[in-house]
């Protein structure tokens, strides 16, 4: 069985994965695709994107909650349905915005 060499040690046959520089910080990492971010930069971008996404998700959740309080009758089944839909909108908006920001956040020159 063929196994991919991920030990980081250059083998005599030259089968070790090539160390590719990160597109943002020039730190070399084995197995990285050309033009991709290293693990540290990817984690940094994910944290920034999550902060932005959380703000948008809270805004969307509050807007939907206010609209539901204003428009739905004050009966228990409608209130439960409204609460569940607010939670779902929060989760969906947060995940979507986080993904979009990670994709389109410009790289920082260091
Ligand atoms: Zn990097």
How are the strands ordered across the major sheet? 1-2
Gross morphology is: elongated
Could you say which structural class the secondary elements and strand pairing correspond to? Answer: mainly alpha
* Radius of gyration from CA coordinates: 22 Å
Question: What's the number of extended β-strand segments?
Answer: 2
Unreliable spans are none
Major beta-sheet overview: 2 strands, antiparallel
Range of strand content: 5-15%
Intertermini distance = 43 Å
Task: Write a compact overview of the structure shown.
This protein is mainly alpha-helical.
Q: Which secondary structure elements does this structure contain, and how are they paired or packed?
A:
Layout: E1 19-21, E2 28-30, H1 39-71, H2 76-104
Helix pairs in contact: 1-2
The protein binds zinc ion.
Walkthrough of the structure:
The chain has 110 residues and is mostly helical. The protein has one domain. It is built from two helices and two strands. A two-stranded antiparallel sheet has the order 1-2. Helix 1 (39-71) packs antiparallel against helix 2. The relative contact order is 0.13. The mean pLDDT is 87. The structure holds zinc ion.
Any key phrases for this structure?
110 residues, binds zinc ion, mainly alpha, 2 helices, two-stranded antiparallel ribbon
């Amino acid at each position: 069985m063929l196994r991919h060499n991920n030990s980081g040690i250059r083998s005599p046959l030259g089968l070790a994965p090539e160390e590719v520089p990160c597109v943002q910080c020039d730190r070399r990492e084995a197995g990285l695709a050309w033009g991709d971010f290293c693990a540290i930069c990817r984690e940094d971008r994910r944290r920034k994107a999550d902060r932005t996404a959380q703000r948008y998700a809270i805004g969307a959740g509050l807007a939907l909650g206010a609209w539901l309080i204003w428009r739905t009758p004050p009966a228990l089944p409608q209130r439960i349905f409204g609460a569940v839909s607010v939670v779902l909108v929060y989760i969906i908006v947060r995940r979507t915005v986080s993904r979009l920001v990670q994709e389109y956040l410009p790289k920082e020159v260091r």
